[in-house]
Design a protein that fits this description.
By secondary structure, the chain is of the alpha+beta class. Helix content is about 60%, strand content about 15%. It is elongated and about 95 Å long. The relative contact order is 0.14. The model has no long low-confidence stretch (mean pLDDT about 85).
């Protein structure tokens, strides 16, 4: 049991975490082992995502004073939250683990001022991350430049080959 001071500190910590991030993903984890939870937690941490097994009643108190207050209905049973500024990565990691372990169930999320259903979170998980999107854009932008460069260089090399061939004949 938590004493009153610890509960107050927990509520304040969760309020800070919620208010300093852009997205929350909620999952139920009943049936996962401690090792499985640790794997998820470690991958989340490596990607800058705060992942916490929550104390539902106290977390609901923290949610009341944040933009995430509409999520309180999803906090029942063994619940974990992934809180971050990168909702796509949070969704990707949760979806990956949910796919390989039926004990992890994505319940809901919150992003861009909207409560997301589990199917919405699963759909977000299919989107490219910011880094993946940047890489695709760079690839798209550099491809035409490479084609232009090869076109510009081709006539010069052809002229050189023709000149060399002419010099041998004549």
């Amino acid at each position: 049991m938590m004493n009153k001071q610890k509960k107050i500190a927990y509520v304040e910590e969760m309020k800070k975490i919620f208010s300093s991030n852009e997205a929350v993903m909620i999952a139920h984890y009943q049936g996962l082992t401690v090792n499985e939870l640790d794997k998820i937690r470690n991958e989340m941490r490596e990607n800058g995502i705060f992942f916490k097994v929550t104390k539902n009643r106290i977390t609901k108190l923290a949610l009341k004073e944040t933009k995430y207050k509409d999520l309180d209905k999803f906090f029942s049973g063994p619940t974990a939250t992934a809180v971050s500024s990168d909702p796509i990565m949070s969704a990707k990691i949760l979806a990956k683990y949910a796919k390989s372990n039926s004990a992890l169930k994505i319940v809901a999320g919150y992003m861009d001022g909207k409560v997301l259903e589990a199917k919405d979170v699963a759909q977000i998980a299919t989107l490219p991350t910011l880094d993946e999107a940047r890489a695709k854009i760079v690839g798209i932008l550099s491809a035409p430049a490479q084609k232009i460069l090869s076109i510009l260089l081709a006539p010069g090399s052809k002229i050189a080959i023709l000149a060399h061939a002419k010099s041998k004949k004549g």
